[in-house]
Amino acid sequence: MRRRLLVLVAATTTLVLVAFLVPLALLVRGVAADRAVQAATVEAQSLTSLVATTDRALLALAVEQVDATSRFDVTVFLPDGDPLGAPAERSPLVELAERGTSASTDASGGREIVFAVDGPAGSVGVIRTFVPDDELSRGVGRAWLLLAGLGVALLLVSLVVADRLARRLVRSATELAAVSHRLGRGELDARADPTAPGELGVVAGALNGLARRITDLLREERETIADLSHRVRTPLTTLRMEADAVPDADQSERLVAGVDAVNRAVTEVIQQARSRGPDGVASDAADVVRERVAFWAVLAEDTDRALTVAVAPGPLPVALSRSDLEACVDALLGNVFAHTPNGTPFAVRLRPRPEGGARLVIADQGPGLPEGHTTGMLRRGVSGSGSSGLGLDIVRRTAERSGGGLRLERSPGGGLTVVVDLGARPA
């Protein structure tokens, strides 16, 4: 950006200087030529009265004196004799002047000027002066050098000013980009300089306002989650005490495990709310899926559901915490029990992905989804079956956070197949 601004300013300034200095240089040359011609004309006209009134001897002496002190060649042509003063040929312009016409013209090496003078007894004399090219251009070279120096100085000044402005603009833009990157990394205390020039200052002010708004929203979210966690822990404690009091030991153990799982999920939510940066955690998908399937297998047996499990031997590391992966698996299995009738068989398969991570597939033989709902079900809050619609959205967001994804397919024998790709933790 800085280089482009300098090139733009240099090109614009050069065009302006050329448009200004070239006519001025031509005018200087014309003025110098006119000045030389005017000086030669004045000197030549000073001899007019002598040519008309003085005899030849005195005229010759006067012409030689003028020619010796003048910067120009002065010659007087008389009708009855050789020319006086500087040697010169009788040119066509002189012949024209002998017929009574004064004129001037460009000649080889300079400019020729002639004056017709009425002499004694009606005769006509001619005064010729020659201005060489050196006199016509006297001082022009120095003036052009001064103009060129002035142009270069103006160009340098414009580049210096443009460079200072470009530095400030580039520095402001770079700082603005750096602040946006810091905000993207979670440094919410980063602020841009609102005094940046022009529109950059407006953008900096808007970015600062956005950062403050994000900070406020995160603070409100953390406070809300913290408040919610405190409200949930009390009934969870009560449920755990009641679960411990259940006479059936197996049933009591299952209830206590469920309450503990909810308690862990609440704790995980609080920890995530307090720290928004990437945690870099990983868990063994094979171990988590086996444990959660074993937990739900009891309920599957109670509801007469045939369960097929095919979990590849671990470890299968994925870029998710254990609690997140447990919540993901529980949401998928809970949907099977919630949205299919008792006795519906289902299968859970887990295998590694070629690019790393794992692929979790849960397929049931239930009624499946209505036509056209396989995409809409992935939107937050969309269910179509009377539920909140958040389960699949949680699974989708969890999978995408690991670098994977979620898709819904129809099972070959009817029903629904959920395919969850879980990304591996980067090395």
From TrEMBL:
InterPro entries for the chain: 2C_sensor_his_kinase, HAMP_dom, HATPase_C_sf, HATPase_dom, His_kinase_dom, HisK_dim/P_dom, HisK_dim/P_sf, Sig_transdc_His_kin-like_C
Protein keywords: ATP-binding, Cell membrane, Hydrolase, Kinase, Magnesium, Manganese, Membrane, Nucleotide-binding, Phosphoprotein, Protein phosphatase, Stress response, Transferase, Transmembrane, Transmembrane helix, Two-component regulatory system, Virulence
Annotated catalysed reactions: ATP + protein L-histidine = ADP + protein N-phospho-L-histidine
Broad class of where this protein is predominantly found: membrane
Subcellular compartments: Cell membrane
Region (Disordered) residue spans: 363-385
Sections of the chain in a coiled coil: none
Transmembrane regions listed in the UniProt entry: 143-162
Domain Histidine kinase: 227-426
Signal peptide boundaries: none
Record-listed E.C. numbers: 2.7.13.3
A GO molecular-function descriptor: phosphoprotein phosphatase activity
Its membrane topology: Multi-pass membrane protein
SUPFAM superfamilies: ATPase domain of HSP90 chaperone/DNA topoisomerase II/histidine kinase (SSF55874), Homodimeric domain of signal transducing histidine kinase (SSF47384)
Enzyme class, spelled out: transferase
Keyword Isomerase belongs to the record: no
Location of the HAMP domain: 167-219
GO cellular component, one term: plasma membrane
UniProt cross-references to Pfam families, sorted A to Z: HAMP, HATPase_c
Name this protein carries in UniProt: Signal transduction histidine-protein kinase/phosphatase MprB
Organism name: Jiangella asiatica
